[in-house]
Amino acid sequence: MFNLFTLLEVVGDAGTGTTAGTETTATMTGAESILGLVLPLLLMVVVFYFLLIRPQKKKDKAVKNMLAALKPGDRICTIGGIYGTISRLKDDSVYIIAGADQKEMCLARWAIRSVEDAPLENDAEPLV
Question: CA 51, CA 72: separation in Å to the nearest integer?
């Protein structure tokens, strides 16, 4: 990295008129300054990858696997907060039975937040 003694040597040589050590010092400082600029950027990219990008990819993969594994009879929660039981699946649509009057609704598959562990016996009872 760049240090104060190198700077003082370059300034001292320029003031006395000698140029013997100036060329090697200038090229060394140029390489060090490039390394000094690239290294922090590279470090930031690595940190962002491990703190942001990698966990998000892992989460997306888990959601994709959960949506692919849906089957009739699963108890689900939608992104709107509706709890229901899947009655049938069709391409990108999911038909659920929800509420006390057992109404059937059609939802997009991507609108499912999670598969719940509540048993089917409690389907008619409201969840609190």
Answer: 36
Under a CB-based contact definition with an 8 Å cutoff, are residues 110 and 126 in contact? no
Specify the amino acid at residue 85.
Answer: T
| Cβ(51)–Cβ(65) below 8 Å | no
Best CA proximity match to 39, nearest among 13, 2, 73, 3: 2
pLDDT tens sequence across 58-98: 999 999 999 999 999 999 999 999 999 999 999 999 999 99
- Quick one: the chain helix, strand, coil %, rounded to 5? 50, 20, 25
Cα–Cα distance measured from residue 28 to residue 56, given in angstroms and rounded to the nearest whole number: 41
85 vs 96: CA distance, rounded Å: 5
Determine the Cα–Cα distance for residues 19 and 12; give it in Å rounded to an integer: 10
Distance CA 101, CA 12 (A): 90
Q: For residues 52, 54, 55 and 59, what is the CA-based torsion angle, rounded to 10 degrees?
A: 130
Q: Give the Cβ contact number of residue 105 at 10 Å.
A: 14
